[in-house]
Specification:
Radius of gyration of chain B: 24 Å
Oligomer: heterotrimer
Shape of chain A: globular
Radius of gyration of chain A: 20 Å
CATH class of the largest domain in chain A: Alpha Beta
Structural class of chain A: alpha/beta
Order of helices and strands of chain A: EEEHEEHEHHHEHEHEEHHHEE
Low-confidence stretches of chain B: none
Shape of chain B: globular
Strand content of chain B: under 5%
Chains: A alpha/beta, B mainly alpha, C mainly alpha
CATH superfamily of the largest domain in chain A: P-loop containing nucleotide triphosphate hydrolases
Number of domains of chain A: 2
Number of helices of chain A: 10
Low-confidence stretches of chain A: none
Helix content of chain A: 25-40%
CATH topology of the largest domain in chain A: Rossmann fold
Distance between the termini of chain B: 22 Å
Distance between the termini of chain A: 27 Å
Number of strands of chain A: 12
Number of strands of chain B: 0
Largest interface: B-C, 55 and 45 residues
Strand content of chain A: 15-25%
Number of helices of chain B: 13
CATH architecture of the largest domain in chain A: 3-Layer(aba) Sandwich
Chain lengths: ~325, ~325, ~280
């Protein structure tokens, strides 16, 4: 059984001008022990999907359709209080994009940790302290940091402290939001290593890694989902996505990234002309067709379904036949 | 040096500079009036207050001595400051021969008794209401409260005082018409007197509180709305912390700038309450200032203002102290962004 | 024909309401003396008479027509408010611009001065200065109010300068060799226009209230009428205790309406000019 399952999920923002269809029919499944990369341009809906997957859905965002199952439980039917008590922090946790301001500025790290732990578990102050110390030590963070205020820590330390706090209660699923975009290369490496260590030490079981930087996903994800305009266009193993992308969008996305891999570099550098579509009123047919260099007639009128093309690959493109 | 102490030292330094600036203004003003030599001016003022010609001469002589008019400016300044340091603020003209310092200290406690509780009460209530409006932003509660706060913040305390006095004391006769206590009673610590005093205290107190709430509410509302969008709120929320806890975080962080705001607005509240005292004939420094200004009793004007400013600066410092203690960023030397 | 910005502004409900109230008052004061040509200082009417058909707002203890007094008072309060606001704006913007642009020692010393003036309560300083002036004409009163209300404007303008200074278009101008003065006038000031206007509105509202406060203590203009002076006479003649409500209720209400509508206007302008970055 998959740890995380999303069935035909539609999440829209209600605005004065109508519904912004940020996530428009997404199916997803994540097995235990794996990391799923969630990639796409800004505005493709990956952040909304990320929030929806843990059911952090507050107006103006609404879950219009679909179900989310986490560890067998139908979390899409739970109310906010139940989610806060039993799911968030405990079953699924997030690591926010900007750790710089994620921690409560006027509380010591330890005090914040205490608030989080005691809300979910009934433990004493000393137990909280030992839990926090143990976890910090396991993840190579100085224990003294616990007694400091957020502004006393460096950027890299803050990011790692946030990761530690998010995983304190050993959530099965960790959703990480662009953890490397605001960091320099050496800190990026530290953070990635930390995330991989967490999985190795079985502190977390699975991870969803949201990013626009595909190069990073190669190091940490087994499977990658490519999103475009609120829909999944390709979902496959990282190998497949990076070395033999089938969807035109994926293909262009890989080529837009400069990596030292000779394979990838051979294909040359291309950027994708045009802009992502307006999600208030997406184009008919395949959403990528206005920017696709290989679009054919049917692409303009019929939306391609996401189909299995063998070997655990899923592609949504008219040019790719099922089973190919 | 401990950052906490460094912060306080800087604040004390600043407050001392401010105080000295004020002293210089007070010193220079009467001596800067164009065309009117101080001596002649003082003589004319005294003439209006006293009728006995011998007494007039005596008062004039005393004042000349205190102002040091026949001496060069720097000597006058020195005289002024040394007298001040000794606690001698001169002799009043209108209340001759009482010393200014003694007069002010008779009236000051009544003002402080009104001002301090009213300032604190309005600050607390205003912040609570503002936070409530922010939390219920764009709902009926907020939409109803905001215009009320807006209007209240622009309503002078003394006009509110007039309205309250008319409605509740003249028309409805629930509260007394004037003073701090009934003229038939003598100040004592008996429950009867205290009750009577509170009865007289109510309207002036509420005039200031209601008048000041609006401003705090608007400020707090804006702060809370801003804080609610902060990253730490989203993160704490996503870790499952209950809404009540997250709100407490927000309030805690929103309060800090409000404390600074209290220090800044103390002057405004002081000024407003002085005029409010007039409406109620409340025997505080407001009455004293009014009397001194209308009789041009310069020593009394000077003394009252100096003591008021001193009290204000002291209060400022106390608020700074509280702030420095509460905000951990000051304690750890965070310079800010 | 009408610039888009004006059209957009009029769509904001808050702005419409506040403008309506405020302009209503101005019209009342400007045309009031034409439509209601009563001499406010004429003292031979029956004293202390309640509102009636002949005297819509009644008369005071000296038999003066209160509606006439009110109309003239509004004019006076408004003009002192505008003048004081302009003075405070000029000082505040000047100091803020210099301080923010120059930085360094100039900045620190100017900010020290600003902080000192900020802490010293303006009412008390105003009272002090006013007390030493025998004759107080409206301009003098405006000046007194103006020179004590500018600190917050200076601080705000300075922050704006500090952030604008680092923007690219300023960098370009410097590269092009433009003088400091030209950079200030051509690049920086136009970007602060919206804030300056808002600050003016707020200053005006504060100035009117300050004038009323000074008048209540007897330190307002020595000749003439203003809303605060009407209240001062009411207080002096014990209007409250004697139940002469028509003397003190209207002037205060009009003052609050004027100040509150100005505040609402500045809030609406603020919301329009500074888009919310998060939420909303």
């Amino acid at each position: 059984m998959a740890l995380l399952e999303a069935e035909d999920v539609k999440a829209y923002y209600s605005t004065v001008q109508g519904y912004i269809r940020a996530v428009d029919g997404v199916d997803l499944s994540l097995q235990k022990g794996l990391t799923l990369g969630l990639a796409g341009e800004s505005g493709c809906g990956k952040t909304t999907l990320m929030n929806t997957l843990m059911m952090n859905v507050k107006p103006p965002l609404h879950l219009m359709n679909g179900a989310i199952l986490l560890d067998g439980k139908v979390i899409s039917k739970m109310d906010r209080t139940t989610l806060k008590k039993n799911v968030w922090g405990v079953l699924v946790s997030t690591v926010p994009q900007s750790a710089l301001n994620a921690l409560m500025p006027t509380k010591r790290i330890l005090d914040f940790v205490e608030d989080v732990i005691t809300h979910h578990m009934n433990v004493s102050e000393s137990e909280v302290l030992s839990m926090a110390k143990k976890r910090f030590e396991e993840l190579n963070l100085p224990v003294e940091a616990l007694y400091m205020y957020p502004h006393e820590l460096s950027g890299g330390m803050k990011q790692r402290a946030v990761i530690s706090i998010s995983t304190l209660l050993n959530p099965k699923l960790l959703i990480v939001d662009e953890p490397t975009s605001a960091l320099d290369v050496s800190t990026q490496k530290q953070v990635l290593k930390m995330l991989m260590d967490l999985r190795k030490a079985a502190i977390i079981e699975s991870m969803v890694f949201v990013t626009h930087d595909i190069a990073v996903l190669r190091q940490i994800a087994e499977r990658i989902t490519i999103m475009y305009a609120g829909r999944v266009v390709e979902l496959s193993s990282s190998e497949d996505i990076l070395y033999s992308p089938k969807h035109p969008y994926t293909y262009n996305l890989i080529n837009a990234v400069v990596t030292p891999e000779p394979e990838v570099r051979k294909r040359g550098l291309t950027s994708i002309p045009g802009e992502p579509p307006n999600l208030l009123d997406p184009p008919k047919g395949c959403r990528f067709h206005p920017r696709c260099t290989r679009a054919i007639g049917v692409c303009r009128s019929v939306e391609p379904p996401l189909v299995e093309t063998g070997g655990g690959r899923l592609v949504a493109c008219h040019l790719v036949s099922p089973g190919a | 040096m401990n950052p906490f102490i460094r912060f306080l030292a800087r604040r004390i330094g600043f407050l001392i500079i401010t105080f000295l600036t004020f002293l210089i203004i007070i010193f220079a003003l009467p001596r800067a009036i164009p065309g009117n030599p101080l001596a002649a001016l003082l003589y004319r003022i005294i003439e209006q207050q006293q009728t006995n010609p011998d007494l007039i001469k005596a008062v004039h002589k005393k004042l000349m001595e205190e102002f040091g008019i026949d001496r060069p400016l720097h000597a006058q300044l020195f005289e002024f400051i040394s007298r001040f340091v000794r606690g001698d603020l001169g002799t009043s003209i209108a209340f001759y021969p009482r010393k200014v310092a003694e007069i002010v200290f008779t009236y000051l406690p009544w003002s402080l008794g009104l001002l301090i509780p009213a300032a604190i009460a309005s600050w607390i209530l205003g912040n609570l209401l503002g936070a409530l409006a922010a939390y219920r932003r764009k709902t009926r509660v907020d939409n109803a409260l905001l215009p009320v706060f807006l209007t209240l913040s622009q309503t002078p305390y003394y006009w509110l005082a007039m309205l309250l006095l008319y409605a509740l004391a003249v028309y409805a006769k629930i509260f007394p018409l004037s003073g701090a206590y009934s003229p038939t009673r003598l100040p004592s610590l008996t429950p009867a007197f205290i009750l009577d005093m509170l009865h007289h205290y109510a309207l002036p107190f509420f005039s200031i509180v209601i008048g000041a709430i609006g401003g705090w509410a608007i400020g707090m509302r804006a702060m809370v709305i801003y804080e609610l969008g902060a990253d730490y709120v989203t993160y704490s929320d996503s870790l499952g912390l209950p809404d009540s806890k997250v709100l407490r975080y927000v309030f805690r962080n929103s309060m800090l700038p409000q404390i600074t705001g209290l220090a800044i607005n103390l002057g405004l509240i002081l000024g407003g309450s002085l005029v409010t005292e007039l409406v109620f004939s409340y025997p505080g420094t407001g009455f004293l200032v009014f009397r001194a200004l209308s009789t041009l009793d310069y020593p009394l004007i000077q003394g009252t203002f100096i003591l008021l400013i001193s009290t204000l600066l002291l209060a400022n410092f106390l608020v700074d102290l509280v702030y420095a203690y509460i905000d951990p960023r000051i304690r750890t030397g965070y310079v800010g962004d | 024909m009408i610039p888009q910005i004006v059209k957009d502004l009029f769509k904001i409900k808050k702005l419409d309401v506040s403008l309506a109230v405020f302009i209503g008052m101005i019209v009342m004061s400007v045309f009031g003396s034409v439509l209601y040509p009563v001499d406010p200082l004429y003292m031979a009417n029956p004293p202390e008479s309640p509102p009636s058909k002949v005297f819509p707002l009644g008369t005071d203890s000296w038999g003066r027509d209160l509606l006439a007094l009110l109309i003239n008072g509004i004019k006076s309060s408004l003009s002192i408010g505008v003048t004081a606001a302009l003075i405070a704006l000029a000082i505040g913007v000047l100091i803020g611009v210099i301080s923010g642009f120059k930085g360094g020692l100039t900045d620190s010393s100017l900010m020290l001065v600003t902080d000192v003036v900020l802490v010293l309560p303006s009412i008390l300083i105003m009272m002090l200065i006013a007390a030493y002036l025998k004759e107080r004409n409206p301009f003098f009163v405006s000046v007194i109010i103006g020179i004590t209300s500018w600190p917050w404007v200076a601080r705000a303008v300075r922050s704006q300068m500090l952030s604008l200074k680092t923007r690219e278009f300023v960098y370009m101008s410097r590269m092009a060799g433009l003088s400091d003065m030209r950079i200030i006038i051509e690049d920086l000031l136009p970007n602060m226009m919206s804030y300056t206007f808002m600050a003016f509105v707020l200053l005006m509202s504060g100035a009117m209230i300050a004038e009323a406060g000074l008048s209540m203590i007897g330190l307002g203009v020595t000749k003439g009428v203003s809303l605060g002076i009407i209240l001062y006479w009411a207080q002096l003649l014990e209007a409250v205790r004697r139940g002469i409500w028509w003397w003190f209720v209207p002037p205060g209400a009009v003052l609050v309406a004027l100040a509150a509508s100005l505040l609402l206007m500045s809030t609406a302008l603020d919301e329009y000019f500074s888009p919310r970055l998060k939420g909303g």
